[in-house]
Amino acid sequence: MPNMLIVDDEEMIRRLIRKYAEFEGYDVTEAADGMSAVMLCRKNKYDIIIMDIMMPELDGFSACREIRKHSDTPILMLSARGEEYDKISGFELGIDDYVVKPFSPKELMLRAAAILKRSQKQSDMPENEIFEVEGLKADFTARLVYVDGERVDMSPKEYDLFFYMLRNRNIALTREKLITEVWGYDFYGDDRTLDTHIKLLRRSLGPYAKFVVTLRGVGYRFEVPG
To answer: Could you list the residue range(s) of the whole structural domain that residue 197 is in?
Structure first.
């Protein structure tokens, strides 16, 4: 039974998520603020965390930053706001997904299931698989990326997106294909999250962002010589 930590200062929201999560078979723990969430994560191991941004004691971004110091537990962030700034800030901190309130509990559970499924797949990665082109190096097994010999730190979603595009290099990938394969569900027409991650990925790759080619009206392609 997967363990879920729900972090939100609104009791009704926690109760709603808990109801659907327990129906889906999760063992649920609740926290009413970011500080409590950090303390719980230091003592216990969770399979996934659903956490609000605006909370007393410690906001979601700060709590995520603290949790990431000692845990790579997948985090799905909730917010009543939908500004691009919030999304970029969260993704840079290493959250796995982002849902804006009001949300559909069923969609939330689908996203949580997709995150867990991706986490489980990582253990099935082939051993000692390394990709190199010019000064760009990617170690699939260790999930490490190097640009001109310097290690690059990416968010979990950047890694997922980058490695998927690498495995399918020189192939035109539609937006729908990327969203389905990397996020594991449909975004119901909202592909801004994909564009935000492409932007972050290009920034991380520096001079090798040239390999990430935009295909107007289609999607993207990771294009390398040979």
So the answer is: 125-222
pTM: 0.69
Q: Do 153 and 69 share a structural domain?
A: no
Long-range residue pairs from 166-174, CB within 8 A, at least 24 positions apart, any chain:
166/131, 166/138, 166/140, 166/222, 168/222, 169/221, 169/222, 169/223, 169/224, 170/221, 170/222, 170/223, 170/224, 171/221, 172/215, 172/218, 172/219, 172/221, 173/219, 173/220, 173/221, 174/218, 174/219
Tens of pLDDT, residue by residue over 53-78, are 989 889 999 999 999 988 889 999 99
Same domain flag for 167 and 198: yes
Pairing label, strands 173-174, 136-139: unpaired
36: number of Cβ within 10 Å? 17
pLDDT one-digit tens code per residue, 106-119: 989 988 988 887 76
Confidence class for position 140, pLDDT limits 50, 70, 90: confident
Angle 151-155-157 (CA atoms, 0-180°, nearest 5)? 125
Residues 150, 50 share a domain: no
In one-letter notation, the amino acid at residue 202 is R
Q: Is the dihedral of CA 106, 110, 115, 119 positive or negative?
A: positive
